[in-house]
């Protein structure tokens, strides 16, 4: 694909002082990831033939895989993730967007620098009787001092006691893992579904216009 004749699909925003470039299976058949930079922020992009990509399961997974690959680059890069579907018709259009949102992106990059998102769901075993409030307090006492931030997610099932996302410093990851394992051992009638690391979707709220 030619970088001069196609649109730019954006995966996320990084510190522009250290651009990235690598080959991988990317959205819509692209195979090259690179950076479009403006004043020390960089959009991680690939080339795409449309500004309105269809969100197939395969491409949604490729989007997440690219974010994960960035996060594992050079011992751990921080990236402000974009939702699927952010595509722009040219470098110029994209740089105009970066220019307008630059202060918000700089704040977001600083907030998540050196951190990852981890998820925890606590599920009550069928027919088990547990004190939801006591469980919530115990998990908070164990995990909140380690995490930089946390946010609640929907309790979409009657058996879900807790569903939270945590923003954790990479250096605290092992401590956090151990704390979750200790909680797991403590409660026989609960299942702990611990996931991640993810790009920190739950802890950034930068909206940019797409399909431009």
Automatic annotation (TrEMBL):
A GO biological process held by the record: gas vesicle organization
Statement: the UniProt record of this protein carries the keyword Zinc: no
PANTHER family (alphabetical): PROTEIN GVPL 2
Superkingdom of origin: Archaea
Intracellular or extracellular location(s): Gas vesicle
Keywords: Gas vesicle
One GO CC annotation: gas vesicle
Pfam families (UniProt xref): GvpL_GvpF (PF06386)
Name of the protein this chain belongs to: Protein gvpF
Family: Belongs to the gas vesicle GvpF/GvpL family.
Main localization, broad class: other
